[in-house]
Design a protein that fits this description.
- This protein is an alpha/beta fold.
- It has a single domain, classed as Rossmann fold.
- The protein contains six helices and 14 strands.
- The strands form five sheets. Strands 1-12-10-8-4-5 form a six-stranded parallel beta sheet, with helices on both faces. A two-stranded antiparallel sheet has the order 2-3. A two-stranded antiparallel ribbon has the order 6-7.
- A hairpin with a 2-residue loop joins strand 2 and strand 3.
- The longest helix has 19 residues, at 25-43.
- It is globular.
- The structure holds uracil.
- Residues 79, 132, 134, 191-193, 196, 199-201 line the site of uracil.
- GO terms for molecular function: GTP binding; magnesium ion binding; uracil phosphoribosyltransferase activity.
- InterPro entries: PRTase-like, PRTase_dom, Upp_B, UPRT, UPRTase/APRTase.
Length: 208
């Protein structure tokens, strides 16, 4: 399974700011969005372009434009919304497919409570957004519903990933490509990433 750690000074710097315990909601939100942009830049590196001729300031000029490949951005509620603006800044024409899950406290399995997918998923590349790839349970549930809807090209964008979640994903969906700003040490006993960022949803929405 391809795992791309986006190892760039800007990303490393911004992630360092996100890790600070006393970061404000506004700053956390801004930086989550900025890293979202930088991850998108990497995750779209292989999009095909085609040549076209436009009228430039000094006459006709040959330029390139992104070929027909359509993209859907898939924020996982609610924390995934925190990366969405940055991603859409880079791909303004992308459609948005929103998914939400809660955890069944008996089975511990993710149960969908909101799903609104764009049409023609078989023609689109999906970019799943979630700041934290922890156990991988919600990510796998999202991948399964996208595949069921016909999507064959799926990438996931994360601020931080845990080795446990990556291992589980490798075993279940090795075709999915992961882009993350960092792979951290481990999950603690309640499923938080260490050192991680804490509860990314609370930090983005200011609900702590
Ligand atoms: N979700 C979070 O917000 N943080 C973690 O560390 C793990 C899951």
């Amino acid at each position: 399974m391809p795992v791309h750690v986006v190892d760039h000074p800007l990303v490393r710097h911004k992630l360092g700011v996100l890790r600070q315990h006393d970061i404000s909601t506004q700053k956390f939100r801004d930086i989550a969005s900025e890293i979202g942009r930088l991850l998108t830049y990497e995750a779209t590196k292989d999009l095909e372009t085609e040549k076209t001729v436009v009228q430039g300031w000094a006459g006709e000029v040959e330029v390139e434009q992104i070929k027909g490949k359509k993209i859907t951005v898939v924020p996982i509620l609610r924390a995934g919304l925190g990366m969405m603006d940055g991603v859409l800044d880079m791909i303004p024409g992308a459609k948005v497919s929103v998914v939400g899950f809660y955890r069944n406290e008996e089975t511990l399995q993710p149960v969908e409570y909101y799903v609104k997918l764009t049409k023609n998923l078989e023609e689109r590349m999906a970019l799943i957004l979630d700041p934290m790839l922890a156990t991988g349970g919600t990510l796998i549930a999202t991948i399964e519903l996208l595949k069921k809807a016909g999507c064959t090209k799926i990438r996931g964008l994360f601020l931080v990933a845990a080795p446990e979640g990556l291992k589980r994903l490798e075993a279940t969906h090795p075709d999915v490509e992961i882009y993350t700003a960092a792979i951290d040490s481990h999950l603690n006993e309640v499923g938080y990433i260490i050192p991680g960022l804490g509860d990314a949803g609370d930090k983005i929405f200011g609900t702590k």
